[in-house]
Amino acid sequence: MATSKGDGANRFLVWGGDGWVAGHLKKLLQDQGKAVYTTTIRMENREAVLAELARVRPTHVLNAAGCTGRPNVDWCEDNKEATMRSNVIGTLNLADCCHLNGIHCTVFATGCIYQYDEAHPWGGPGFLETDPANFDGSFYSMTKAHVEEVRYPGLPPCVNPVLTCLQIIKHYTNCLVLRLRMPVSDDLHPRNFVTKIAKYDHVVDIPNSNTILSDLLPASILLAEHRDVGVYNFTNPGAISHNEVLTLFRDIVRPSFTWKNFSLEEQAKVIKAGRSNCELDTTKLISKLKEYKYEIPEIHDAYRKCFERMKAAGVE
């Protein structure tokens, strides 16, 4: 367990060890001089979770653990039990244990539970936090979507083997749920959305909401410290297409970079799980952060600044 003493009253416990997002959170908190601890205790192990909370005595838990799949969400299609154990049972168990101990719990969740539809077309209104999920094209998304919409084929509606976190966990009065989408860091880490699409032979060209971690993770700390709760779409404002992202990447970071496009129909032939494509409305998040005098840049501006930081750091 990594620790940093800090000098404030708050004590942060980051679930997820030195995972990608967890590692960013740990460094951010350390840089801010906060008391931070990390753990890799399995979230579904109730006795171990309760023991860890009693040992560390955190005021805040940041849950950046869970299964997203390696190298991508297709992994979850072949490992459904492990995905449920972590994303559903584990996440709910940790939230419940925190509630019993009066600990604020921030859950880094996903916004990949929506798909463009007639009410939310490209260039139209984004999905609100209160909109029902309409995408279950991947098992990963199913474990994050609405309980009444997740079914196994052939089972009656009353049978729901895949419980869902977003609709259930929001009823915990100690929980803050942050919906990230296609997260991007200031390097080419393997989990970085840009790293992933830059390695594909072909990419689709669809506008999506994205989360630039350097913009949003400091905001997560602010929200947690103010003990905000509820669900927030946690992305930069606006939507950006894959081609726009890769064009900026080429122009700023890697001038020799090239790529090819293909259609959704062609993509479906080479992946096991469907992919969510949508824009999330960030009005609620932007309004809340204004109370703390914190601003999130629009996604095109955010990407440009992100790639400029990459270039300055020598990333090629």
What does this structure look like?
By secondary structure, this protein is of the alpha/beta class. The protein has one domain (3-183, 211-237, 278-297): Rossmann fold, CATH 3.40.50. 37% of the residues lie in helices and 13% in strands. It has helices at 20-31, 46-56, 74-78, 80-100, 139-142, 165-169, 193-199, 213-225, 242-252, 264-268, 283-290, 299-312, and strands at residues 3-4, 11-15, 35-39, 60-63, 104-110, 175-180, 183-184, 202-203, 211-212, 230-233, 260-261. Strands 1-3-2-4-5-6-10 form a 7-stranded mixed sheet, sandwiched between helices. Helix 1 (20-31) crosses helix 8, helix 2 (46-56) crosses helix 4 and helix 9 runs parallel beside helix 12. The longest helix is centred in the N-terminal third of the chain and has 21 residues, at 80-100. The radius of gyration is 19 Å and the shape is globular. Mean pLDDT is 84; it is low at 71-77 and 137-163.
Helix and strand topology:
Layout lengths: L2 E2 L6 E5 L4 H12 L3 E5 L6 H11 L3 E4 L10 H5 L1 H21 L3 E7 L28 H4 L22 H5 L5 E6 L2 E2 L8 H7 L2 E2 L7 E2 H13 L4 E4 L8 H11 L7 E2 L2 H5 L14 H8 L8 H14 L4
Parallel strand pairs: 2-3, 2-4, 4-5, 5-6, 6-10, 7-9, 8-11
Antiparallel strand pairs: 1-3
Helix pairs in contact: 1-8, 2-4, 9-12
